[in-house]
Design brief:
Blueprint (H helix, E strand, L loop, with lengths): L2 H11 L9 E2 L2 E2 L1 H11 L16 H4 L3 H6 L4 E2 L10 E6 L2 E8 L4 E4 L7 E4 L2 H6 E6 L2
Antiparallel strand pairs: 1-2, 3-8, 4-5, 4-8, 5-6, 6-7
Length: about 140
């Protein structure tokens, strides 16, 4: 995909606030952002597993996020990550967060109590990085 198109999609979402279960520009959680970002890139992925999830979902079913992620795309070695790869992370004890690489150094994501932002895949985030999936 043309980098200028990726940049246009990134600008659309930057600054959108976190909202559990959010699926529009009024608020997004990381899964909602991933779903909409790929949709805008012309890539259809499921919006979660089709079941509702509470704000405490990770404690209720810690493996849920990873099970869903592994159903889409193909695993990518961490040294081969490229733009538009889905990256997923361990926050604390659980794999519960994801984003989309927008170039070779930055990924777009949203954390609880935050807004959608671009973050460098720096040493701190690489320590949390569990895997990547290629959807195109």
């Amino acid at each position: 995909m043309d980098p200028s198109k990726i940049e246009q999609i990134v600008r659309k979402y930057l600054g959108v606030p976190y909202r559990h279960g959010g699926r529009d520009l009024n608020g997004l959680d990381c899964l909602g952002l991933i779903h909409l970002f790929y949709r805008d890139c012309g890539i259809a992925i499921p919006d979660g597993d089709g079941k509702p999830y509470s704000p405490n979902w990770v404690y209720e079913d810690p493996g849920r996020y990873l099970r869903g992620i592994k159903k889409i795309g193909k695993e990518v070695p961490l040294n081969m990550i490229q733009p538009l790869d889905l990256v997923y992370f361990r926050l604390g004890a659980f794999i519960s967060h994801g984003g989309v690489m927008v170039d070779s150094h930055y990924f777009i994501h949203v954390l609880q109590k935050g807004v959608v932002r671009l973050t460098p895949l720096n040493r701190a985030w690489r320590r949390r990085l569990v895997g990547a999936r290629r959807l195109i």
